[in-house]
Amino acid sequence: MTDHAEAAPPPLLIERQGAIATLCFNRPAALNAIDVPMAQAFLAAVQAIAQDPGVRVVVLRGAGKGFMAGGDLATLRANPVQGAMDLLTPLHAGLALLAQIDAPVIAQVHGVAAGAGLSMLLQADYVLMAEGTRLNLAYINLGTSCDVGASWSLPRLVGMRQALEIALLGDAFTAEDALRLGLVNRILPAADLDAATAAMAERLAAGPTVAYGAMKRLMRQSMERSLSEQLDAEQQAFARCAATSDFREGIAAFHERRPAQFNGR
Predict the structure, then answer these.
(1) Rounded to 5°, angle at Cα 22 from 16 and 26
(2) What CATH number does the domain containing 200 carry?
(3) pTM for the whole structure
(4) Complete edge-to-edge strand list for the sheet that includes strand 134-136
(5) What is the pLDDT of residues 11-63, one digit of tens each?
(6) Structural domain for 248, as ranges
(7) End-to-end CA distance of the chain, in Å?
């Protein structure tokens, strides 16, 4: 007997082009709302990336009409507490690991970024957004607090007063608002988003990956340290970078008056 039933599409698509790994959230009929299988696939993908030194840039994007419309409410409606734990445990583990890798993370955002979708893009190191994108932290409209690191990243990006306004009012805002607030780096016509993301990914993929990782961690951890502690951390990070072949190449290129050719090591 032949089973003609079609297999369900994977909730997360993984594409590798050279040193660039793209993770595409793939539930377009649900505007890529995160369910448990997607969260588990995300964790597995990040674990694989963390073990692959050939990955020098990670791109996050969404299939279909939007980046991500938050968590899957059907998952949460049947059993709110257990459903939330089943969803957030792998999702948060994946995000914590993604923050530790050296490779810069680019979010390519279009259409809608609500709830966990907005929280997700806040965790990226660089954000490109299509004109016309609508954003909403949204959690308060469902009677819950936030997740996916929004309470950590949002006050750092926009300040406490503005973060509380976004979180407590739950109002929608535009890509232009997001740019003004410092939540995104660039907004572009939707037709240009793919090309701009590819160009930025290629630029970062050609850079000194270990130094990128050190710079990311220094910046993100600076608000938890005193100046003295941060100076010590900078000295240690610089020493680690100075031991890389990329640093030796950077020094040689400077003296030879040529562009550096970094290998990510």
Answers:
(1) 120
(2) 3.90.226.10
(3) 0.94
(4) 68-69, 112-114, 134-136, 173-174
(5) 999 999 999 999 999 999 999 999 999 999 999 999 999 999 999 999 999 99
(6) 209-255
(7) 53
